[in-house]
Design a protein that fits this description.
The protein has 189 residues and is of the alpha/beta class. It has a single domain, classed as Rossmann fold (3-Layer(aba) Sandwich), CATH 3.40.50. Helix content is 32%, strand content 12%. The protein contains five helices and four strands. A four-stranded parallel beta sheet has the order 2-1-3-4, sandwiched between helices. The longest helix is centred in the middle third of the chain and has 19 residues. It is globular and about 40 Å long. Bound molecules: FE2/S2 (inorganic) cluster (FES).
């Protein structure tokens, strides 16, 4: 059987080989206005696509904090997909521009951590592009199958990255309020 392009990808040193029959787990952060609707239209249009994407709906791709992605990897994702409106179509004007810049930097950070940067993909998919969504998922799934299971960031770094707990070091506890926590120090009048 002919090998696909993805199956020829070299696997980064230190990454484990895939066991027989293994399927990658993809966590997808999808903007509510475009890509979530695009994925929905792929589903209602009964387009053939892998079923290994767990979707997290966010208001805008600009809402995706890099910590969300690190936490997904720490908790077992083999790949993370961030998808939003096409550049220029963001419902909050510039959210996807921020996302694009942030995620480019994060890819370099992933490489520094020892994760293959191809495990993080960013795509722009509109509400009417169900076919494109199905293609994105198919191709990412192929790429990840070639790369094999991701090393677990949580096992490597755990609390050092603040990924082992819900609120890692440096993050304030959830209070349900926007007020800054009292520090006990001097306050401005
Ligand atoms: Fe879709 Fe900003 S609203 S990317």
């Amino acid at each position: 059987m002919a090998q696909t392009q993805a199956s020829k990808l070299p696997v980064a040193a230190g990454e484990p080989a895939a066991p027989q029959g293994w399927e990658p787990l993809i966590v997808g952060f999808l903007c509510n206005w475009c890509s979530y609707a695009g994925a929905d239209s792929a589903g209602t249009g009964r387009m053939v696509q892998p079923t290994n994407v767990r979707i997290v709906r966010v208001p805008c791709s600009g809402r995706v904090n890099p910590r969300f992605i690190l936490r997904a990897f720490a908790r077992g994702a083999d790949g993370v997909l961030v998808s939003g409106c096409h550049p220029g179509d963001c419902h909050y004007a510039t959210g996807n521009f921020y996302a694009r810049r942030r995620l480019m930097l994060l890819k370099r950070y992933l490489e520094y951590l020892g994760l293959d940067p191809r495990r993080l993909e960013t795509h722009w998919v509109s509400a009417s592009e169900g076919q494109k969504w199905a293609e994105v998922v198919r191709s990412m799934s192929e790429t990840l199958k070639a790369l094999g299971p991701a090393p677990r960031l949580g096992e490597w770094f755990g609390a050092d990255l603040g990924l082992a707990t819900e609120t890692g070091p440096g993050e304030p506890p959830e209070t349900g309020s926007n007020e800054r926590p009292e520090t006990g120090g001097q306050r401005d009048a």
